[in-house]
Fold:
Amino acid sequence: MATVSSAPAPGMHQIDLSKLNIHQLAKLKQQLDQELNVFQDSLQTLKMAQGKFVESGESVEKITPATKGKTVLVPLTGSMYVPGTIADTDNVIIDIGTGYYAQKDIEGAKDYFKRKVDFVTEQMEKIQVLGIEKSKVREAIVMMMDMKVQAQAQAQKSSTS
Structure:
């Protein structure tokens, strides 16, 4: 009950919580709280990236030979668009990150965005698993802190009687 797990995950150490004092447990809990906040922030960021990749994939899906010559709004920045005409329905230029662009055929672009969504989803799942493990450790620390506080209170009560 005092140890968190019998087989620690990679990068994690096994600690006998019963051997730590309340101050050490509080520090460990604080560290875990910070790590859980980082995980939450990372999940939010990945969720936004996943949404953008899904949206980009859906946009590519809408490009068909029937859309040739149609007017669309082309984003220059996050909030500024200019009108443009679709000239080529066989190829698109996609943003592959850090200011680099690549020309892909429609199927290649669909595949690219599908792979990106799959990759981001996989990373989100990994972070969620780590978050669950860290939450379990945090719960064990809180339980041990409660037990130690109660033991201290009991000791003080019996020493004053």
